Amino acid sequence: MYKTLIRPILFKFDPEKVHYFTFKILKNAFKIPGLAGVLKGAYQVNDRRLHTKVFGLKFKNPVGLAAGFDKNAKLYKELDGLGFGFIEIGTVTPKSQPGNEKKRLFRLKEDQAIINRMGFNNEGVEASVKRLRRNKNVLIGGNIGKNKTTPNEDAVQDYIICFDALFNYVDYFVVNVSSPNTPNLRALQDKEPLTKLLNTLQERNNGMPSAKPILLKIAPDLTDQQLLDIIDIVTETKIAGVIATNTTISREGLKSENKNEMGGLSGKPLKERSTEVIRFLSEKSGKAFPIIGVGGISTAQDALDKLEAGASLVQIYTGFIYEGPGLIKRINKAILAKK
What we know:
Pathway: Pyrimidine metabolism; UMP biosynthesis via de novo pathway; orotate from (S)-dihydroorotate (quinone route): step 1/1
Pfam family, one: DHO_dh
Number of domains: 1
Organism: Gillisia lutea
Active site: 179
Oligomer: single chain
Structural class: alpha/beta
Keywords: Cell membrane, Flavoprotein, FMN, Membrane, Oxidoreductase, Pyrimidine biosynthesis
């Protein structure tokens, strides 16, 4: 129904406007008496065999929503109702910021992909905290970044502000230094500044009554040597794991009209490279840390491939937009079929 009826209508309109329109529709749908139960029954797969324990947390299933969709923690309850095992909010920054100028979100229909140059548009960390205070049982990841106007030499402080504000309201953290849409952000992936950033957050984390898992989200465009550096950094800083991968700046093999737009590419073209990075990290590290696999998952088999390559959990975003919530159910059913 989604692909044959709903998606063709939504895809006739500007993607960013559709994004916010969809938020309103889902919010209202879950308020209608009885409809929330119907939606949950249609998409949720409740089976104990899907329960997954990773970095000390218990996930009801291994299929999560990647950061970028629910930036301001406005829809996590409804998205949980559609069958996700966990929701990652953000990327949030200390202060609110509008992001880059519009138009900044582009569908590449022929490639089943999206290019975005949103630029960490969000309402600021305190706005998310206010909404997360109402959370009862949704497993939440907090994806944190720096404001655009903050120079890299001061970036650590921005991450600390977000970390402190979210600490009591999220189950794990993700340090985002890999978005291509904030100027010079990816320079923080270099070994020295990244080690300093993660060590600083870990010191703060270890000073808490109960530490939270901290993960690093990396770009798919890293070289093998840079990936080996990532393994060294994870080992040295003792963070909980890695999310592989963020969007890519590559445009190789694209067919769509919008292929040369600036920004990060997500969706089907990223599938193979993301899986390669997962396999490399898993094999070269001797499976030393958990990996959340994300990038180009549009079928259940895509998710299985990432799990088989070494991922402990998977996340979807662009596949969710192209395939609808039925994709979550199909992935979970496929995982059960392999049990």
